[in-house]
Amino acid sequence: MTAEGRGAEATDGAGESATGAAETPRRAGYRHLMRAVLYREYLVFVRYPANAVGGIVVALFFFGVLFYGGRMVAGQALTDSIEGIVVGYFLWTLSVGAYSAISNDIGSEVQWGTLERHVMTPFGFAPVALLKGVAKLVRTFLTSALILAVMLVMTGTTLSLHVLTVATVAALTVVSVLGLGFAAGGITVLYKRVGNWLNLLQFGFIVLISAPAFDLGWTRLLPLAHGSALLQRAMVEGTRLWEFSVPDLALLVGVAAGYLVGGYLVFQVATRRARRLGVLGDY
Question: Which pTM value belongs to this model?
Fold first, then answer.
């Protein structure tokens, strides 16, 4: 073989090696997973607009019944406390969205028979469920903001809406509910049809959001309770994030982290038990 032939062969071999290296697929990271679940949530929203709009209409309908019905019964007493009611209802819509983001989604996956796909992903079941919950929480924030705007117009009230303060306090408050949703999702994987019991907890959120009114110190350790008090101060009294005391913010972060970690552990224990019993994919 001539020198030119050997040179051409070497060049072709190098080209093939470079092409092979370029075509080697890169492993997807959590950034790609987060982008995928956010895009999925966007597609579900825009491709099923009737269901998405229906959720907003139902939420506003119940608030209308609460507001106009309460005004007929309580009169001025309701009007004097309407700001707190608006903030509480706004937090309740966020809480229900955060809770159902994981529990209801896992229940649907169990019924559809697609749960095993999440287990088989290289990321693991729990991280996928968590990021899907975060994606749904982003959507819930947007829809709850729209509901809040309509409630303000409906009631004719004004609130302090400092975006950084409201978003930070509200997000940390509902993280604890996200932990409850994790625990509920694990129970769903293990026992399948327990939706009636899990949905009952959503009405318990009303009591937790109202807990600051009872002025009991130990209730601040419950999910939503302490965050509800801080959110009332932020949106009704106009308190900014940096004006809260360090112990108040530390307790808010601690409660959020504690319930999220606790819910994650319950989820892990329940899914491992479902695997041992061989009922992970059964329905």
Answer: 0.81
